[in-house]
Amino acid sequence: MSQLKISIVSLGSLKYPINMTYLEGWKSRIINVSHGASIAHLPDADGSNWEYTREQLSGLIKDDGNYNFIIGLISAPLEHNYYMHRLGDKIAVLSLFEMAEIVRLYDFTIENYMLRNIYELAVLYKVNSTLIPSDMYSWAHDDVRGCLFDMNANKSDIVFSLHQPKICHACNARILSNQVDAEFLPELSKDLKKLKKSLYFLMAEWVKLHPVLALIMAALSATSINLISSIIFEKSKAIFSWLG
Ligand SMILES: [Zn+2]
Prior knowledge:
The protein is 40% helix and 13% strand. It has 244 residues and is an alpha/beta fold. The protein has a five-stranded mixed β-sheet with strand order 2-1-3-5-4. The radius of gyration is 24 Å and the shape is elongated. The structure holds zinc ion. Zinc ion (ZN) binds at residues 141, 145, 147, 149, 168, 170-171. Zinc ion is lined by residues 141, 145, 147, 149, 168, 170-171.
């Protein structure tokens, strides 16, 4: 199965630091991410509410022919307040506007948000050999299923597909009705399982959900540590008489 070569092009100041090395080192048989060119200074936004329009962005991001597709990363808002737009067969743009704050508020990382959306585009590309399939509008579903193709009209719903997102039954059937590599879906499922919240935040979440159990466990572990220390001390006394 051939890997999709994807280039990230940063557009203007991104406000937040992005760990491009992490993205470039992401192990996958489906995607290979590179941080390609960047546009350091953006022109003023064409939109009446300081948003960048599809037309304006299409004129800014160029396809250099070395990648399957290119994703422009921008911190400014996009037309109609979407967080992702597909601008052409091989070009998409992903915005951090409001999304960076949402994902950080729920203890996810911006890199996690980026990878989740890269996988969404990767599925479309694998199935259609283009980012803009003729039936593009029917892929996303309004129902929030924790699926890569959740519409997320309410932007904060993205958090339901940031921790081990899945491909719902309907989307799975849709992929299978196209000609895709037999290894694609198993590999995708493996990759999506790796997209998750850090262990620290998962533990913190568990404690919030089970405060009494967490308290009992803390008390039990404190008692056990005390007991083990006493046993060690008693044994040591028997060996080293000068201890006491
Ligand atoms: Zn779905």
